[in-house]
């Protein structure tokens, strides 16, 4: 599949949004909703949204593959956030109806320290060598996922640095109706962003694994292209999400020709997420590890070992993959 855009910053909504003063169904304790109007945003029009490639927005946590210690490495998303004093100043500025872009940040003094190996996301604007915070007062960035870092143990479970491979879920190359879990060389994923999904990520909306045998996978951004999407109108998209099998997804991300990414989430349209039966779980999945040379070298408890034991097996849906003790 053609490599599409990578997620290096917050994606704008395809529609102009408005704030409604009622409890959010997306974020607990948030007293307002952000809903889409029927007007397509200027950012979407400027990016030529009508010629963009629509893909499934997957519900997980964002990751990035780039070089570290002279080899391809998985990196976890880590946004630098302001310290308490700076955050208070920023919130007071916003409450006085200030434009977040006009707020003055002293990046060296206003932000909590970052790990030494932290890097800013690629598309972040920089002034005098310092990254510029986004409209939320955050500086998106990445930290490398080390093998024994407990904070990122679920990220670590989907990569093996000795063999430089990652566990990836995507379409089967010869059958678009079939999903495939395979061990992919990390070098093939260099400079791509991916979504980590699974048992311990975001409440596990896809029902993968269980507490005793957690299951996590990487999905390259843009991997699941959407066919036959209706016209770009609020009511048409709403009907598609509500009444179409392919619409049982978290949202849509349009990959524009200039690299820009534009999204719409079910919550923007006043719809619920997560939902009981997702489109991702409506398709069969085959295991294609092809790891004969390294099977015996894996730790007995690791995901690569578990998957190698069920290599070439086909399951009716992702939910049905349960590892034996």
The helix-strand sequence is: EEHEEEHHEEEEHEEEEEHEEEHE
- By secondary-structure content and strand pairing, the structural class works out as alpha+beta
| Sequence stretches where pLDDT stays below 50 over 5 or more residues | none
Shape: globular
| Rounded Rg | 21 Å
Keywords: ATP-binding, Ligase, Nucleotide-binding, RNA repair
Protein name: RNA ligase 1
Organism: Saimiri boliviensis boliviensis (Bolivian squirrel monkey)
GO molecular function, one term: ATP binding
Which secondary structure elements does this structure contain, and how are they paired or packed?
Elements: E1 15-20, E2 33-40, H1 42-46, E3 53-57, E4 61-68, E5 71-77, H2 84-95, H3 107-110, E6 119-120, E7 126-127, E8 130-131, E9 141-144, H4 153-156, E10 159-160, E11 165-172, E12 175-185, E13 193-198, E14 216-220, H5 234-243, E15 251-255, E16 261-265, E17 285-288, H6 303-309, E18 314-315
Parallel strand pairs: 12-17
Antiparallel strand pairs: 1-2, 3-15, 4-5, 4-13, 5-9, 6-9, 7-8, 10-11, 11-12, 13-14, 15-16, 17-18
Can you describe what's shown?
By secondary structure, the chain is of the alpha+beta class. Among the domains are: 95 residues, no CATH class; 65 residues, no CATH class. The protein contains six helices and 18 strands. The strands form five sheets. A six-stranded antiparallel beta sheet has the order 6-9-5-4-13-14. A hairpin with a 5-residue loop joins β15 and β16. The longest helix is centred in the N-terminal third of the chain and has 12 residues.
